[in-house]
Structures are given as structure tokens and as C-alpha cells.
Input
Amino acid sequence: MLKGPGFYGKDFAIIKSGIDATIERMKRILMTIPGERVGNPNFGSRFKYYMISPIEDIQRLSFIIKEDIEQWEPTVSVDDVQIRTNFPEQHVASITIAFTIKDTGETINYNLEF
Output
């Protein structure tokens, strides 16, 4: 079972494991812009580039999220990415990622809001 630090909890730093660690790694991928990480300039997701500009092609953005997560998180297979927006009212995007843990076959739906 993979473990790793998490920085999004109530405490400053906590150790997460299992599905929580997998979700933490996925969030880290999505929140990192390629070129931002020293020593691994290719790490990250291109989706933030699309979040600061008008979203005309939700399917393309879904594909980018799926591709980037599968490239950097080898323990999961992304089954589906759904994006819902309520622009221009509140400028919020809700991203639901359905993924399967490769080792166990467990399917999980995880929702992120930006």
C-alpha cells in the first residue's frame, strides 16, 4: 500500500494511505502546471491552462485530465471525467473523476471543485 504526505488536511502535514493517498496524488497532478516542479519539469496537468480561458471544448478538457492523471498516477485507470460549470454566475467548475484502482478493481467517483 502506498503512503505519502498530505497537505490538505486540518493538520499541517499528515500521512495518508490507500485511497486517500491516491486521491492526494491525483490532486497534486491536477494542481501542478508542467514546468513548475523542480527536477521533474514535465510533471503536472495542462488543465489549468484551460481553466483561465473560456471553456469551449469540455470533451477536450476531459480528455486532457484523463490523459494527465493516467500518465502520472500508474495505480489508477480513469474511466470517466465529467465537467460541469456554472459560468458566468459563480465561476466554478465541478470535475467528477471516475477511476478504478488497478490492484483491487475498486471503482471510485471523486469530485473536485475549482
Remarks:
- The mean pLDDT is 81.
- Helices lie at 18-31, 47-51, 58-72.
- Strands lie at 3-6, 14-17, 76-85, 93-101, 107-113.
